[in-house]
Amino acid sequence: MQGLSPMGNRYRYLIVATCMIMSLFEIVCCSQKVGSCNPCKDFLGSGDPHVTGCLSPQKFLFDPYFGNYDDHIELKIKDLIGEEFLLSESCEEAVHRLRSLFKLTVIERHLIGEGSHRRLLSSLKFDCPSDAISVLEDHFCEAVVIERLPLGVFADPFELSHLVQRGVFQDAAVFGDTNLELPSALSNQSIVEAHVKIGIDNISGQNRGLEVSIELPLHIRYPPLGAGGGYLGIEMGRLQALVRCRSRAKPSQWILFGWDVKPSSSLVWQVPRGDPAHAEFVSVITFVSALVSALLIFYSAISYHSLVDNSKDS
């Protein structure tokens, strides 16, 4: 079988050039570069947990309560888990021992990356007492963050599941709207719960503090068009931070600590959006480019088969 003729090669190059022009046009007209946001520190007051107690074993804290509250976005930790506490004598002893280990000093939140696919990094920092190593050796502990995602922002459950398999998270789940194909105007809010293991490796050697970082991959749905285009600011929801531990000797019960975090400043995701005035122009150019490309592909296919038939006849 012989290769394409010079004319066939020219058509092939023309197709590639057309596709490159279409991609370049889309990048220039429909996207702008968005930089990372400055870190956002959340105010905690004394840092002592607002909620302490013991819970029966369950994989996700939010799972039993999803669907029982009309307003998940304003749900507080006490409403979420307070009714399940088991204040037994053994629980009070365990809480007393672990309480000093988890005095939260600061939470920092960053949006990492650019464009429509970014990562929300939440860093929890605790004061670390002298017996921290022995306590962590006797207990299995994990940090839990519950993120209320605003309209237009979503987490991919399949991506989170892959991160769990890789050991990045202990567990992770999305509650609420998990339809990834819906545009922003038709979507609903969702909640992400992610768990990260806390161990001796999390103890900082410099200040003997305990640091835990949780990095959530998030994505933006296509925002509605706005007059003049520009950017649409999407404010990230309020974080709920918790820590839960269970004794390695008696793993049947979780000891839980929770903080109601008060944001000192907002964390805003600036999203580029299109201008309705450009919609018709972009649609026409896209249609014409797609039509020309389709015709060229069709013509190249016919030319190729003609060349093959001629080579067989000769």
Give a written overview of the molecule.
This protein is of the alpha+beta class and 314 residues long. The chain folds into 2 domains: 60 residues; 239 residues, no CATH class. Helices cover 30% and strands 31% of the residues. It is built from 6 helices and 14 strands. The strands form 3 sheets. The protein has a 6-stranded antiparallel beta sheet with strand order 6-9-4-3-1-13, with no helix packed on it. A hairpin with a 4-residue loop joins strand 3 and strand 4. Helix 1 packs antiparallel against helix 6. The N and C termini lie close together (12 Å). The N terminus is likely disordered.
Basic shape: elongated
Q: What kind of sheet is the major sheet?
A: 6 strands, antiparallel
Q: How do the strands of the widest beta sheet line up side by side? A: 6-9-4-3-1-13
Number of strands: 14
Whole-number count of domains: 2
- How much helical structure, as a percent, in the residues? 25-40%
Q: Radius of gyration from the CA trace? A: 27 Å
SS class: alpha+beta
* Terminal-residue CA separation: 12 Å
Q: Average pLDDT, to the nearest integer?
A: 75
Reading the helices and strands in chain order gives: HEEHHEEHEEHEEEEEEEEH
* Number of alpha- plus pi-helical segments: 6
- Spans of 5+ residues with little confidence (pLDDT < 50)? 1-8, 10-38
Main location: endoplasmic reticulum
Keywords: Endoplasmic reticulum, Glycoprotein, GPI-anchor biosynthesis, Membrane, Signal, Transmembrane, Transmembrane helix
Transmembrane segments: 281-302
Family: Belongs to the PIGX family.
